[in-house]
């Protein structure tokens, strides 16, 4: 049986290195329908939605389900399905584009720029909270549950080892590991 240390380890150097990342504009739109992460760490081709809309959707995904230990590429992977679906469903495409336009307009009215230019997560979350009852927001939030958390690469980040039925179940594989509770 494998023992996992699930505690987050933050060093002073690591904190200082990543503390400014939220304000530096982590998502860029490149000509030709490409959306790219900071420093080219990830990129995706957008075929049906506007690249700027997809960049906004990726940032929204991070703000809706924030996990500092997850890279943006996992959020981008969760959102790419919306681009594919928009190619088959004109109503979905119109709803997504209109929703992103609304988010950008709200950000512009409150902060003088589009959603991606709002530097503070707290301010972006306030924008999202103001529209959390909308069909657009609920569509994005609902799709993220499976889009983000059904990625096997993400499971390890949360300490989930995956399905166990094909390995005999959890009984002999640490189902009762309670390393977070003191004896």
Helix/strand order = HEEEHHHHHH
Look at the helices and sheets and give the structural class: mainly alpha
Q: Rg, please?
A: 19 Å
Q: Care to count the β-strands?
A: 3
Please provide a written account of the structure:
This protein has 183 residues and is mostly helical. It has a three-stranded antiparallel β-sheet, with helices on one face. The protein contains seven helices and three strands, in the order αβββαααααα. Strand 2 (34-37) and strand 3 form a beta hairpin.
Question: Which descriptors would you attach to this protein?
Answer:
183 residues; mainly alpha; 7 helices; 49% helix; 6% strand; globular
Produce the secondary structure layout.
Layout: H1 12-19, E1 27-30, E2 34-37, E3 43-45, H2 51-64, H3 72-88, H4 90-111, H5 121-129, H6 135-149, H7 152-155
Antiparallel strand pairs: 1-2, 2-3
Helix pairs in contact: 2-3, 3-4, 3-6
